[in-house]
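Have a think about this chain, tokens included, and walk me through the fold.
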Amino acid sequence: MIILLRLAVATLLLTGTARATGVAQAPDERPRSAEALARFPQPVLVGALAGREVLEDSLEQRLFGRVAGVTRDAAGRISILVNQGGWFGFGTRKVAVPVEQMALLGPFMVALEFTPAQFAALPDAPTSGTTLPPETTIRVGLTKN
């Protein structure tokens, strides 16, 4: 019984230490928000995100659009560009969603904390910023149904 108690305490201490230190990050990355760290961001190649369907974070999982690319602004913030709206690829517009508000769900991406109306109301993506090449690695959170 004492051994089990000691094992439980050691596990809690190690888990608390891992949460306090967060996820190890590459030296060239800026620190992530608490929300992003809570989703255990995973390294992903930008090229692996291109063309993925972006879904609503709800049981309905409505389609918001498809990933068109990834940009980094002058302040170092990364955004996922999403082709939104349109019909059969015509009439789409690009919106920029902060990477902290996106998560991977298997072969899809999910726009977190957006209703369809809020996503449709996003402004057009700015033309400034650097488009990241497909071989660039970024960190993206994970989610589940």
